[in-house]
Amino acid sequence: MKIQTRFAPSPTGYLHVGNIRTALFNYLIAKKGGGKFLLRIDDTDLERSNQEYEDEIKRDLEWLGIEWDKVEKQSRRFDRYQLTLEKLRKEGKLYPCYETTNELELKRKKLLSMGKPPVYDRSALKLSNEMISNLKIEGKEPYWRFLLDHHKVQWEDKIIGNISVDLASVSDPVLVRQDGQFLYTIASVCDDIDFGITHVIRGSDHVTNTATQIQLLGMIGSSVPTYGHHSLLTGLSGSNLSKRFGSLAIRDLRSSGIEPMALVSILSALGSSKPIKVFHSYEEIYHEFSLDYFSSAPTKFDPDLLYVISKKVLYSISLNEVEKDLRKIGVPEDKFLPFWEMAKDSIETRKDIKKIWNLCIKGPSLMIKDEDKPFVRTALKLLPPPPYTETSWKNWTDIVSKNTGRKGRSLFMPLREALTGKSVGPDMSKLMPLLQKIPSY
């Protein structure tokens, strides 16, 4: 049996690194085993679902090179969900409830104040036919719960190991809201059955939900997928990530210039016993990726690490992979190789490539300190006219040193700042042959 996985985002917000980590795990599991990866758009919430978010989800996945084999939308499957609900209703496993949100909240607070778990008390099952008729006359619409069997559900989790959840300590899950909206549990179970999902990899916050779904799958008469629950990503402070956590939204990382394989490299190892390595293709990752190395303990995500790894990715890619970028900013083709060999040491993102090319053709944008100007003017008078070669920097600084007596940092730093506007940057020997404008002071 070939592996079939799915990624099931809701188009109600932008994806963040935590969402993408789930997508990546499912993609890697499927493709490593020669299986299929399904993109399922969970848009049962018609009011909050937005086409813009759906489009952004697809752009995020494409940017990261995560290719889906098929797209499904839950909004097209309402008839299927309704048929399953009718089956559950006939078997006495679905029951109507009429409590308001406020009433449920009061019950929850009362149980907590008594030191008890806030489990739904099934009071709706005690409603007589007459009471239900009166509620309908009053115009009240029910929401619907699945009647759980109160026993333990066990499964062998691909990440956590053996898990047992006692459903006596779990509220009967709501399958349909009062407004008729199908909720995640019923929709997801039906989809996993119909689309032949063999493996479900998701966050550890879904463990209890998995137990209820396993029982629901058994009630419907379906086989149970293999489950794996990975750790949740947090910020460095330990706070949860959110779809609306802007700085780690994938759409913002796309525009920041971060290399997509930098994010993939980090997420394919973060939270595991494996060190983070720089990968350039999914084929490289397949050989090393295994859920066996991961844990379910919360995992901190450091955004600064993205820039560190992105720089390493850029440094090690071939010229062919950046030719399009160089051509776009106007680097002559005969300068591609020397420019890239010079620039790749000093960039964190592709956006920096243009900055370095602008330096070559326009000169520095920042001026040197006033106290350095007399020395720099003297040095520039000793600079031969172009063209320059890779020996020009050494030859020039040797001449300047002999004429001024300066050595070391007091010699090199003012000259670097004069030509580049910065105290750090590219190898000056490689930069000099590409400089088209020498500033005057």
Oligomeric grouping of the chains = single chain
Largest sheet report: 3 strands, parallel
- DSSP, total strands: 12
- Beta-strand level of the residues, as a percent range? 5-15%
- In CATH, the architecture of the domain at 319-434 is Orthogonal Bundle
Choose one word for the global shape. Answer: elongated
Can you give the mean pLDDT?
94
Distance between the termini: 73 Å
- The main sheet orders its strands as 1-2-3
Unreliable residue stretches: none
Radius of gyration from the alpha-carbon trace, in angstroms: 30 Å
Number of helices: 18
- Give the helix level as a range of percent: 40-55%
**Coarse structural class:** alpha/beta
- Could you tell me the CATH topology label of the domain at 319-434: Arc Repressor Mutant, subunit A
What is the CATH C-level name of the domain at 319-434?
Answer: Mainly Alpha
How are helices and strands ordered from N to C?
EHEHEHEHHEEEEHEHEEHHHEHHHHHHHH
Describe the structure.
By secondary structure, the protein is of the alpha/beta class. Among the domains are: 246-316, Glutamyl-trna Synthetase, Domain 2 (Glutamyl-tRNA Synthetase, domain 2); 319-434, Arc Repressor Mutant, subunit A. The chain has helices at 17-32, 51-63, 78-90, 101-113, 129-137, 184-194, 207-220, 250-256, 260-267, 282-286, 303-316, 323-328, 336-343, 351-362, 373-381, 392-404, 408-420, 428-431, and strands spanning 4-7, 36-41, 70-73, 94-97, 143-146, 152-157, 161-166, 174-176, 199-203, 226-230, 233-234, 299-300. It has a three-stranded parallel sheet with strand order 1-2-3, with helices on one face. Strands 4-5-8 form a three-stranded antiparallel sheet. It has a two-stranded antiparallel sheet with strand order 6-7. Helix 6 (184-194) packs across helix 7 (207-220). The mean pLDDT is 94.
